[in-house]
Amino acid sequence: MKKSDKCNKQVSLQRHINYVDNIRDNLNRYNGDLTLPEIAESAGIPFSTLKNILYGNSSDCKLSTAASFAKFLGITIDELVGSDTLTEDAKESLSIYHELPERSKYLARWFVKHQKALCSNNDSTKSVAVMIPKDANGYLHPTNEFKTLSIDDFSDYVKAKAFIGIRIVGDYYMPYYSPYDTLLIANDRKPLKNEHCVVLYYGKIKIVTRIVRKENDKKIVEYIPIQNRKNRISEHDVDEFIGYVADVYKDSSNKGA
Q: Per the database record, which ranges form the HTH cro/C1-type domain (predicted)?
């Protein structure tokens, strides 16, 4: 055997062992309450295959097996085996996404879909995606329904800052906002004192103001709903801070939409 062939085989073997080690590490980090036989059944692979991988048989992992493990763990094959086909930024984004609670993942998926829709628009006009929330039991809830709104007629400040819109579909926020208003949201800074901002709180959209106070030399940040200023929402209890209201688009044609 040529020396170069021998080296190539050694590199290939080492790479394969590293891949299997990465699979093994990911499986060992699984913190669910399933037993090994239940994991094998859920992943759709033989229990013997799972044991071989976990306990050192590095020759028993086909691509189909890796795909089954990745699907079960809710990660990509690249993350499972460490094949370095993703950029560092992509890996970081995926890692952050996996650690989010489900309600935050919903918002992240929704935002990515809306950005994709905007980027696919070849129009030269400046526009933002506007979410149409669901009105349920007196609260606004995020949805996957959205429209595109041109903001060409707004100030350069709004065009530069606004990244998303949220339509008001109920009368809960009157006299501040009517059911025909669209809030244009920016997120380049913390909201100013008495400035309206939007948060996601236990899966509900809330329009609030942000206050900062000190108690026993400790900084406390709270949000006050504009509908009921007696209420206080701790910053720690907020699911997501979406942004502050940079401007409002008023259009009576929204009625009945």
A: 34-80
Q: How far apart, in whole angstroms, are the C-alpha atoms of residue 164 and residue 166?
A: 7
Q: Going by CATH, does the domain composed of 19-85 fall within 3.30.830.10?
A: no
Point out the residues of the chain with pLDDT beneath 50.
1-17, 256-257
d(CA 136, CA 25): 44
The single residue listed with the structure tokens 């208003």 is: 181
pLDDT at 17: 41
The whole-number pLDDT of residue 256 equals 45
Q: Give the total residue count for the chain.
A: 257
pLDDT of residue 18: 61
Sign of CA dihedral 49, 55, 59, 61: positive
Where do the H-state alpha helices sit in 120-230? Answer: 156-161
C-alpha–C-alpha distance, residues 153 and 155, integer Å: 7
Strand partners, 204: 201
CATH architecture of the domain with residue range 125-250:
Ribbon (2.10)
Partners of residue 247 on adjacent β-strands = 184
- The structure tokens listed for 3 are 């020396």
Residues 208/226, Cβ–Cβ less than 8 Å: yes
